[in-house]
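Worked example
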Amino acid sequence: MNPASRRGARGVAIALEAFRARGITCDVLRTERPGHGGAAAVERAPQYDAVFTLGGDGTAMEVVGALAGTRKPVGILPGGTGNLIARTLGVPLGMKRAVAALLDGELREVDLGRLADGRRFAFAAGVGIDAAMIERTPATLKRRLGVWAYVLSASRAVLRRERFAVRVTVDGAMHEREASAVMVANFGAVLNALITLGPGIRHDDGVLDVCVFSPRTFLDAVRVMWRLWRKDFRPDPCMLYLPGREMRVECHPPRLAQADGELIGPTPFDVRVEPRAAHLLAPRPRAAPAPG
């Protein structure tokens, strides 16, 4: 548990009570510094049936990355501002419901992206609108508004329509264009499937998908957003999709990049996929209503 996270300190008591109500023993380790959670997970995970994180996306990926390839189940409880990974997996934001959903859930094998410095991400890495959203969201605004602070920053970034030259190399093939956003995506759905980033993006297919969005005008930007919302992926000069296993993203001039909501420094950055490296607990999908 990250005691500095937005909802971590308040949520830990609720989470512990929810575990106790199910007859499950859960020990708590409070992180003291960056890297502490990952190191502790590696050291202590063999003594436990599963590891849960309670904090933001940084805490979650620190532990998921440390336990990659071990087949140890990891459950992600929503304790941060954006809770991007928890939302992507469909974890309820209420702590008691989140614990119940993960305990009654299923185990998913999830691909991970690995950066050159060894850090891993589960959802996406990118430059442009998503990185600007994270860079320009003040901590005070995050504490007051939560995920809506990110939405506000993202809206401002979209309206600015900042463009930059990008070179993307995917499995040895080079592609160059101007763009407003470039994402190396592992999950296709965003915000509980409200928006889908691209066609056929799966978290367990052994590849990552580079999504390049290049709107030139405000109307282009509106059309791209409308198509993502409608899951309309017909050919469009403002949308480029490149699946692959190894990729490099370069920008001129260099730009800050992010991975799962954490700034990772300026471009270029290199990524390779680690197929099904993470074992994540997730709520079971809701059954479709019976016909008639």
Notes: The mean pLDDT is 86.
